[in-house]
Design goal:
The complex is a heterodimer of chains A (about 140) and B (about 130). Chain A has about 140 residues and is of the alpha+beta class. Chain A has helices at about 5-30, 65-70, 110-140, and strands spanning about 45-55, 70-80, 85-90, 100-105. A two-stranded antiparallel ribbon of chain A has the order 1-2. In chain A, strands 3-4 form a two-stranded antiparallel ribbon. In chain A, helix 1 (about 5-30) packs antiparallel against helix 3. Chain B is mainly α and about 130 residues long. Helices cover about 50% and strands about 5% of the residues of chain B. Chain B has helices spanning about 5-10, 10-30, 45-55, 100-130, and strands at about 40-45, 80-85. Chain B has a two-stranded antiparallel ribbon. Chain B is flat. Chain B starts with a helix and ends with a helix. Classes of the chains: A alpha+beta (about 140), B mainly alpha (about 130). The interface between A and B is large, with 42 and 40 residues.
């Protein structure tokens, strides 16, 4: 818990999970945004997480476990799904192409919902770790009184 | 002066240091619970405590050259930082089991608080001896 590194780790986890929640929200909001062109229709987005070693400030004197622990997480990028958009015959739609077809996004709503639950649980885990660590640090501060 | 505070406090400061390291390692695991390819780790607490507590730990590194970097024997638990045996690894190579990590975190929290209580009692004893009341 030295140098408050644990707050950096937990904070990186929380921000990564909230990016994931953001993409879920974006995917669900656009689940019905049809288009007349399969190339311009909305595509489902998903973040890619990557583990990053925390930089040890000062260097040199840090023990090996200091360098080994402190693996935070970052969002490496947002990946767009390559699944084919769904073609649907809907000539009444003003966005339909000359054949009367519209293209619906390749968003799988069920997949998004499970992703949302997973992200929110992981976020809660991180909050729990944060609260507990904070309590432990405060208790350590009061040591000997 | 024959009295040494380090000896008086015993194993508990080492235990506290190690437990706070373990908190960090478990927080790493939980933060990376959805990172592809991440392997969960934990500190082998028994082995780390054994090497922190005994003055004649099995293998010790010494510095005999000014260019060498000294290693604090109490915090160098890298040899005891081990990968967890995965129960059900995910398809993306992630081996974090959230439930297992939560349980380990709770366990570690209780142990940390116990160590704090022990230390606190030592300090209280010292204060009683000093003030004589």
């Amino acid at each position: 818990m030295s140098s408050f590194k644990i707050f950096d780790i937990v904070g990186s986890g929380m921000s990564a999970q909230s990016v994931r929640l953001n993409t879920v929200a974006s995917n669900l909001a656009n689940a019905d945004s049809v288009s007349g062109d399969p190339n311009t229709v909305y595509r489902a987005r998903h973040p890619v997480f990557q583990a990053v070693k925390a930089q040890v400030a000062g260097g040199g004197s840090a023990s090996a476990i200091d360098q080994a622990s402190g693996t935070s997480v970052k969002v490496k990028g947002i990946m767009q799904s390559n699944a084919l958009p769904t073609e649907r015959y809907d000539p009444g739609n003003p966005l339909a192409n000359e054949n009367g077809n519209v293209y619906a996004p390749n968003v799988n709503v069920i997949e998004e919902m499970t992703d949302m639950i997973s992200a929110s649980r992981a976020y809660q885990d991180n909050v729990e770790v944060l609260n507990t660590s904070k309590d432990l640090m405060l208790a350590t501060l009061k040591l000997g009184t | 002066m024959p009295f040494s505070l380090d000896t008086y406090l015993g194993i508990h400061p080492d235990a506290l240091k190690l437990q706070s390291k373990r908190t960090e390692v478990i927080a790493d695991n939980l933060a990376n619970s959805d990172t592809p390819g991440y392997k969960a780790r934990d500190i082998d607490f028994r082995a780390a405590m054994a090497s922190a507590g005994s003055p004649d730990a099995p293998v010790k590194m010494t510095t005999d050259n000014p260019g060498h970097i000294a290693i604090d024997p109490n915090t160098d638990a890298s040899a005891n930082l081990k990968y967890r045996t995965p129960l059900a690894p995910a398809l993306d190579g992630n081996t974090v089991d959230t439930q297992q990590e939560q349980a380990a975190f709770a366990d570690n929290t209780v142990r940390y608080q116990a160590t704090l209580t022990f230390l606190s009692a030592r300090f209280k004893g010292l204060m009683t001896a000093i003030t004589g009341q």
